[in-house]
Design goal:
One of its GO terms (cellular component) is cytoplasm. One of its GO terms (molecular function) is D-ribulokinase activity. With about 550 residues, this protein is α/β, with parallel strands linked by helices. β1 and β2 form a beta hairpin. The protein is globular.
């Protein structure tokens, strides 16, 4: 007998630029992460609500991690590269050199981060126009989108930055340009963060109305007049220079990119769920929401027809899954909030030393500590008298009010490790209650959601996952590969290579289910009551602010 020669495995590279680090993965055609590497990147906070980065630092980290994951791999088996990144704003001059986005003139700091809130007055003025494009961002633009940041640059750095600028890139598009030399933009970035319409293009009247008519004059060259769908090949693939930087052969296919949360959605939302007894089995993909939980959280739901949800971004056509409309809810601080609450507590040094002594990370230790102090109660019931409103960095969805503040109700004079564990639990519950608020708003507008698909760093925390299942009342699906955002980026590279007929085909074959977490139905009444309290908290905050504003 003769045996057929087995075809070599095909590989794709996913590169993900998060808020604090760059990660790369080598992913095979079945969605398995074969190799993974990460490297921190620098964040500057020169003043409150100003967050900046360096595009040179970010690209150097991309090159470093990519070289690590392809080490020892036959380059002929690597078929495509996909990038995703935070929706931060990169500013370059007419010769593609970095321009300072700060008053100090530090040109290496040429990126305004997504979470930068410097443009508050600009976004208020933009929203006051009530321009029709705002109906596609939930009725009000977020300070985290690009038009208010552009307006801030024009009004505050006219000579040093605005007049010298040649190109304003969303960070995912900067990366595809750096790799290919082509200034094409992704439909994902320009539709979701810049007000581009997939059927009508740019709206001249909007840019003129908000005082950025300069962008219209050059036919939008500075912000993009060549738009590609996510996963489409960009140019002729990797340039010789980029190939050397990344340790890859010249000409490998490079995909039009995605925002990081959207890549996470791509990596999980289309997975085959047969045999898992889930309510979304044999249902369209529109019954699912992908929740990407890291520094912040995003809630991605798709629909066949446009659904306008108050306070939720979108609908955006083909911004994540081709042919479907995307709505995107979000919470501006989730992982960052949990870290803030835990590390700022007086008992944190004790937690650190006890976690280190037991060779556990601090959150694993806190979870086990909660199990120890719960006695006969379910863990979640420990917060019957402790409630957190989690908008310490404003509310993105569904209230779109960046002036809202965090609230904690139920504090005592105790300051020990038990109290730290309880405030940690109440914070996670507050975040999950915020997710329920977003989902209920989406469902009231016309979405039909029955299953959550979680990915991102917080999905590794079993307490975070269980609280989301219990509080929303919906099963939570975790992917087999924890690094779903990287799988999503690799899916883009797979599509650009031509190895899959469509993004949908690649999603189904490369996205794989790992574990399903079911909600505890017997706890429903408790969490319904917690949700009542949750909604009362924001009512009270608005009431006391109204009282003080009359002073």
């Amino acid at each position: 007998m003769h045996s057929e020669k087995q075809a070599p495995v095909k590989y794709y590279i996913g590169i993900d630029v998060g808020s604090a680090s760059v990660r790369a993965a080598l992913v095979d055609e079945f969605g398995t992460v074969v190799a993974h590497a990460d490297q921190p990147i620098q964040i500057w906070e020169p003043q409150p609500d100003h967050y900046e980065q360096s595009s040179a630092d970010i690209w150097a980290a991309c090159c470093s991690v990519t070289k690590k994951v392809v080490c020892g791999v036959d380059a002929s088996q690597i078929r495509g590269v996909g990038f995703d990144a935070t929706c931060s704003l990169v500013v370059l001059d007419k010769k593609f050199q970095p321009l300072a986005v700060n008053c100090e003139g530090q040109t290496n700091r040429n990126v305004i981060m997504w979470m930068d809130h410097r443009a508050v007055s600009q976004v208020e003025r933009i929203n006051a126009t009530q321009h029709k494009v705002l109906s596609y961002v939930g009725g009000a633009m977020s300070v985290e989108m690009q038009p208010p940041k552009l307006l801030w640059l024009k009004e505050n750095l006219q000579e040093s930055c605005w007049e010298k600028a040649g190109y304003f890139f969303d960070l995912p598009d900067f990366l595809s340009w750096k790799a290919t030399g082509v200034t094409a933009r992704s439909l994902c970035t320009v539709v979701c963060k810049w007000t581009y319409s997939s059927d009508g293009g740019w709206d001249d009247s909007f840019w003129k109305m908000i005082g950025l008519e300069d962008l219209v004059k050059d036919k939008y060259e500075k912000i993009g007049n060549h738009i590609l769908s996510p996963g489409e090949p960009v140019g002729k693939g990797l340039t010789l220079g980029a190939a050397k930087d990344l340790g890859l052969p010249e000409g490998i296919a490079v995909a039009a990119s995605l925002i990081d949360a959207h890549a996470g959605g791509l990596g999980v939302i289309g997975a085959d769920v047969k045999g898992h007894n889930l309510p979304c089995e044999n249902q369209p993909i529109t019954s699912r929401v992908a929740m990407i939980c890291g520094t912040s959280s995003c809630h991605m739901g798709v629909s066949e027809a446009p659904i306008f949800v108050p306070g939720v971004w979108g609908p955006y056509f083909s911004a994540m899954v081709p042919g479907l409309w995307l709505n995107e809810g979000g919470q501006s601080a989730t992982g960052k909030l949990i870290d803030h609450v835990v590390r700022g507590h007086v008992a944190f040094p004790e937690l650190q030393s006890k976690a280190a002594a037991s060779a556990q990370n601090i959150y694993t230790y806190l979870n086990s500590h909660l199990d120890m102090i719960k006695k006969s109660l379910p863990v979640g019931f420990l917060t019957v008298d402790l409630h957190v409103w989690p908008d310490f960095h404003g509310n993105r969805s569904p209230l779109t009010d960046l002036t809202l503040k965090g609230m904690v109700v139920g504090l005592t004079l105790s300051q020990g490790l038990d109290e730290l564990a309880l405030i940690y639990l109440a914070t996670i519950q507050g975040i999950a209650l915020g997710t329920r608020h977003i989902l209920e708003t989406m469902q009231a507008a016309g979405h039909h959601i029955n299953t959550l698909f979680l990915c991102g760093g917080l999905s590794k925390n079993p307490l975070f996952v269980q609280m989301h299942a219990d509080i929303t009342g919906k099963p939570v699906v975790l992917s087999k590969e924890v690094e779903s955002v990287l799988v999503g980026a690799a899916i883009l590279g797979a599509c650009a290579s031509g190895d899959f007929a469509s993004i949908q085909e690649a999603m189904e074959k490369m996205g794989r289910i790992g574990r399903v977490v079911q909600p505890s139905r017997e706890h429903k009444r408790f969490y319904d009551k917690k949700y009542e309290v949750f909604l009362k908290l924001v009512e009270h905050q608005r009431e006391y602010r109204s009282i003080m504003n009359s002073f």
